[in-house]
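Sharing a chain and its predicted structure for anyone who wants a worked example. Both blocks are below, sequence first, tokens second.
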Amino acid sequence: MTTVSSSLHAWQHNLLSELTGLGEPIRSFGQKGAYMRGTPPIQRRPITDALRASIVEDLPEIKDIRDAELRAKVIEGWAFSLAGSSYQRISDLPGEGNPDVLVLKRGNQTDHLRGVAHFAMKMVEEFETSHPEVRVDRDIVLAGALCHDIGKPYEFDPVNRKRWAEDPSRAGDPCLRHSVYGAHVCLSVGLPEEIAHIALGHSLEGQHIGLSTECYIVRHADHSWWHIAGALGLLKPETLVNVGSMMRPRDLETVKASKVA
């Protein structure tokens, strides 16, 4: 029996050595090193209390989430996402819908996140007032609105964008859109699947899945925010993509001149 066990162990060891190159360095694509083939995994910096505090400073609406555990997970999700990027805090992210698309003339990503949260909650309040029989999970709407773009630190990261652009044949460009990566972030930190669903479903990927009620609300709040910002002249004209042919953006310079006159 011992001989059989030893032989089996030796066979397994040889097989693993053959498959993994046991005893040899695991190398990244095209270079020597300590990683497997392909791009090394994301190196996350430590998540500190200072990072968590900056998230609440940038998104004070987090305090309005009534469920304490959900509130903590929203903070942890953003901390996890930021820690794997070049950005130090949410307000460092540019105010863009996608990289170089729907770009704010002034402001940053917090203006959008907070605006979508306000839009979404106003929608809920309107229907709860006019039709009290409706049932909406307000915490899921608010948390989902604040987390719908939680994957943007990954997709927007200049380091990632440079790598993807240099050779799109390797891992695509982008490798993952912020909506897909955002769902990964949500599930990784233990946020409920309802929030991961909103992170995925708020954008283009939502066209291919059935959307929850709360996701539908956030999705429309998100799209409406960008479209109205565009109509008001708050976005750079050359970045107005997928807003339809009906929009005639207001010229803010003309508005400013008329006020002075």
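Comments welcome. The first helix runs from residue 2 to 20.
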